[in-house]
Write a structure and sequence with these properties.
Two copies of one chain form a homodimer.
Chain A: E1 2-9, E2 12-19, E3 22-29, E4 37-41, H1 51-63, E5 66-70, H2 82-95, H3 102-127, E6 133-138, H4 140-151, E7 155-161, H5 170-173, E8 180-185, H6 193-202, E9 208-213, H7 223-236
Parallel strand pairs in A: 4-5, 4-6, 6-7, 7-8, 8-9
Antiparallel strand pairs in A: 1-2, 2-3, 3-5
Helix pairs in contact in A: 2-3, 3-4
InterPro entries (chains A, B): AB_hydrolase_fold
Organism (chains A, B): Planotetraspora silvatica
Protein name (chains A, B): Alpha/beta hydrolase
Chain lengths: 237, 237
């Protein structure tokens, strides 16, 4: 792992890194050893430094946690393959009315998950011990996070959501056993309500809690950011 | 309103009162004016000083809120009419396997609600201004609370749940416009899952948030008590 740049603002240090070809960012509190490390999986079409990712990372670091984000395959600074391009083009056509995009979305997510799960695990290896590990990911970040959380025993708690059985793997969800806070939007225009409920249902976790709020895919209320922080503090703090 | 007894423990004063024939309890913090008043609706077969009611009231008072509870009709120190007895006997038979108890439960709740809604309103009149008002009620406390919250403009936020459209009024829920936190148990043996989701759906509130947790009717996790307190603090504090 090679750190390529470093800035510090308001008590939080942000460092860009590369691990082989993989680009990522690590946020740490300046004034103390981190109490935990939260991996942040960005949403579809976003990247490791999308405004929502950075805002969440800074909030976590201000609380005393480290946070890390990487670009998912075909996102941010990472190349798209011909196969990625083909699926994305077809998905956009379907989202404009030419059919149901969900089966293609599921196929795309499965393709990316096969690649990103070992990548995240190599990041954990390279970062070393920054405390107990949590994962936060909505939408694409949930679809890719579920197989990661199922496969990686160092991850001890996860905030997931904005996804459903039609765009994420219910089989992988049945392998998730750690505490999960699962977010859904009651009027999500992308994820059918019953698919989101079915994905929550499929999680094998003994402690899992569903938070549903009115509004569309992008309308998760601001108070849920505090709620996620308290969830991690309860399980990792 | 006549206060009939008073005790003070650990900074919280508990006073029993009667308002006409109606018996109730008021909890207040000793060291400050209450920041808000939370009405607590007890569960079926319980009463105004059931352990869960008292524990919640003390927690609220420790935070700086007043709390009040009354016995629902046919509960606690209040008489059962012949009609109550008949419904309860038949409900118990059905819960032991002699048919579906839910239609009778809905009928029982409607009967009690018609009586308890004006009772709660008279309690609010008699208590005077103790700050903005919230309502907390699960199960029976939800079924009776929904028509109260819909009817009483002094109530500005409510924590409801452990109920569904088969045992509470969806029509009344469509009259609830204040922020609601709605609790459901994912494996509730009394309330069908789809009925609970439908009752949440029926609430007209612009801000409503569903918290679903695994387990049966009585298994709401302890961390949701903090969550309810934060909800009231956010809306009334």
């Amino acid at each position: 792992m090679r750190f390529t740049s470093q800035t510090s603002t308001d008590g939080v240090t942000e460092r860009s890194f590369t691990l082989g070809e993989l680009p990522g960012v690590l946020w740490t509190p300046d004034d103390a050893e981190p109490g935990a490390l939260i991996l942040i999986g960005h949403g579809g079409g976003q990247h490791k430094q999308a405004p929502g990712v950075v805002a969440r990372a800074i909030r976590l670091a201000a609380y005393g946690f480290a946070a890390a984000a990487i670009d998912a395959p075909a996102h941010g600074d990472r190349p798209k393959t011909a196969e990625h391009d083909q699926i994305i083009t077809e998905m956009r056509a379907r989202m404009s009315g030419a059919g149901d995009p969900l089966p293609l979305l599921a196929e795309f997510h499965a393709l990316l998950a096969a690649q990103t799960v070992p990548e995240w695990r190599s990041v954990l290896d390279a970062l070393g011990n920054l405390g107990p590990v949590g994962y936060w990911g909505m939408s694409l970040g949930c679809a890719l996070g579920i197989p990661l959380v199922a496969a990686e025993p160092r991850i001890r708690a996860a905030v997931l959501g904005l996804s459903g059985t039609s765009s994420a793997s219910a089989e992988a969800a049945a392998g998730v056993a750690v505490p999960v806070q699962f977010m859904m939007q009651w009027d999500d225009e992308l994820i059918p309500r019953e698919d989101a409920l079915a994905l929550f249902d499929a999680l094998a976790s003994g402690e899992k809690t569903l938070h549903a709020n009115p509004g569309k895919h992008g309308d998760v209320p601001a108070f849920e950011a505090d709620s996620a922080l308290r969830f991690f503090a309860r399980h990792l703090g």
